[in-house]
Write a structure and sequence with these properties.
The complex is a heterodimer of chains A (about 300) and B (about 220).
Chain A lengths: L48 H5 L8 E6 L12 E9 L5 E5 L8 H12 L4 E6 L10 H12 L4 E4 L9 H13 L3 E5 L16 E6 L8 E2 L7 E4 L3 E5 L3 E6 L1 H18 L5 H11 L1 H6 L8
Chain B lengths: L2 H24 L3 E8 L4 E9 L9 E3 L3 H9 L3 E4 L5 H11 L6 E8 L2 E9 L8 H28 L8 H18 L7 H23 L5
Antiparallel strand pairs in B: 1-2, 1-6, 2-3, 4-5, 5-6
Helix pairs in contact in B: 1-4, 1-6, 4-6
The chains are: A alpha/beta (about 300), B alpha+beta (about 220).
Chain lengths: ~300, ~220
Amino acid sequence: MTGRALVTTDPPWRRPPRNHFPGIPAWGAPTASLRQETFDISEISRVTPEWAWGGADGAGVRVAVLDSGVDGTHPMIGRLERSVGIVSDDNGGFAVADCEPTDAAGHGTACAGLISSIAPGAALTSVRVLTNGKSGSGAGLLAGLTWAIDEGYDVINMSLSTAKEQFCLALHELADRAYFRRSVLVASAHNMPVRSFPWPFASVISVASHDQPDPTLYYYNPSPPVDFYARGVKVTVAWPGGRQISSTGNSFATPHIAGICALILSKHPMLTPFQLKSVLYLAASNVTSTLGGDHASQ
Amino acid sequence: MPVSDAADITERSLLQSIVEVARSVFGAAAASVFLLDQRTDELVFEAVSGEGEEKLVGTRFPSGTGLAGWVVMSGQSLIVDDVDTSPQFARDAAESTGYVPRSIMAAPLIRDGECIGVLEVLDRGTRPRGDLSDVELIGMLATEVAMGLELLVRLRWLAGEPQPPDAGGQAAGDLAVLGRIAQRLPGAAEPVASTVSRLLATADDLLASGQNGHGGDPS
């Protein structure tokens, strides 16, 4: 007899992939009420939250927000380095052009405000890739992402995904290209049981929600493809017109991790994306606690 | 009755059933389904339960605006609370729907990788489910809506309308899904189990009316 029976002692990362069909809850972890799963850790000494981002404000780090645009006049945003959007080109494709810093849907403003609140020194650029139902999730997204990678943004926030299979390969190649060029893609895990991209790619930092209020509290997820859980429930976010609202969704967890990435990179600018993910892992709340409590003061 | 007419009636019944279930499950003031009109790039109210149900069906607005618009564009579901804190928002909402919600929860309807619409719930009740559970539950309901609409698309194909591009290869997948549903339903928690049961009954009615109208074998 060949093959090996699945035993319950298999570690989380050796489990069969979760099926994606109706009836299975999507990604998320109600960490306020559920105990975190335990897992083994190989310690690399010295990396602590204090080492990782203590005293940092994101200065010197350029962050692109791929979304519905950003309201550049909102008091929670601060000054935008640049505002661009996708436009149709002469060949039926998309190009990127400078545009007014506005946001018809409100979502990009919310994400940018969260990044600003965590890394106020980071330089933000709005890349409007979501404009309407027709061009919102495919070719325009690829054009905007390609532009952001070519422009060398250090962190690219993608609180969005596409379920269109025809874009999977192109997105995968772009994600790898970003990874090797040290542009860190931080992407929302889908909070529905559908197959979508680019968040499940290994070269991307993928984020789902936990339900606690601390903006820099995040957890490592030992059962991929979701990498981290960050604050995503009842988050106070910027909304166009100078407003603030309370919002819930993985879309709002993602900019928390993007902001923390900006902090880490501003303090340690030579980190590669794989080192950055390791630092995030080592400084995650459930890893530091397993290693003997929050040793931020060491 | 022609199959496509029966399908139209069943589509309305299916969508109405979904919004009734959504409103009931969440103890909400209203629930609605919008579908995307690709020709005009607008979102159209297709079914409403609760506030506005008498007059909103058929109402349209541009797909690139508002929370429902963002859900269409990004393919992600979300909850927004305290939306009535802005006088401007309240006025806009009241002018378009006649009702000003405190909270909005919305999930995309995804079929073949395309977002074809939005399931939206206004002012869900305060029963202790947790917001993460709410996001997951509305996501599951939205998935059911999209599956029901997929069945209707195939029914119309049987009636002689253009064949969906993947109609052949999908049949085995559907059977696999039905098999898994049969395995999992007995162990599912309320109100998920009752929701799934009602949807299955609707799908059964739909298939029965399709076979009566066409007299053919779907395979």
